[in-house]
Specification:
162 residues; 7 helices
Length: 162
């Protein structure tokens, strides 16, 4: 019987151990509690959905379940625009993520002044900086997830890489 690899590539930290430091720094930067952890996970789940990545989708769904978020809210992330179960602040964060990840119509900004103003109504300067870093953080992990294709896991403690 042959062994099927879990992921497409081996754990990148065995070749670039500095990745552990980068990952830890990103989690410290976004873990300052200025933005609710649930909001961060909703944003990261939506990012996984947008890029069509099972690893990110399962991982962030697991985080949300562990935090006690209802199945209704988790399921509704994919159609958050018309789902009644999100706060205005969560909607603003999801809008900012989508504007960042998806191309804008030709000749238009991705993040308009109006969108920035809407997000700033819900988040103070520290929270807005933290949310921006969280969006950058998920973009960093998107590259690892879509290129490396780690095994889908519900916890970072589970084996993701061969």
């Amino acid at each position: 019987m042959t062994s099927t690899p879990i992921s497409r590539m081996p754990n990148p930290t065995q070749f670039v151990p500095e990745l552990n430091d980068i990952t830890a720094a990103l989690f410290r930067a976004t873990g300052n509690r200025s933005v609710p952890r649930t909001t961060m996970s909703l944003v990261h789940l939506r990012a996984g959905q947008i890029v069509g990545n099972t690893y990110l989708t399962i991982l962030n769904t697991g985080f949300l379940r562990k935090a006690g978020v209802s199945e209704e809210r988790i399921t509704a992330v994919s159609s958050w625009q018309d789902a009644p179960c999100f706060t205005d602040a969560e909607r603003a964060a999801l809008s900012l993520l989508e504007a960042t990840l998806q191309p804008a119509p030709h000749g238009q900004e991705r993040v308009t002044d109006d969108l920035y103003a809407e997000v700033a109504k819900h988040y103070d300067e520290k929270a807005l900086a933290t949310l921006t870093i969280a969006i950058g953080q998920i973009n960093f992990f998107i590259a690892l997830a879509v290129i490396g294709k780690p095994a889908p896991v519900a916890s970072l403690a589970d084996k993701q890489w061969d």
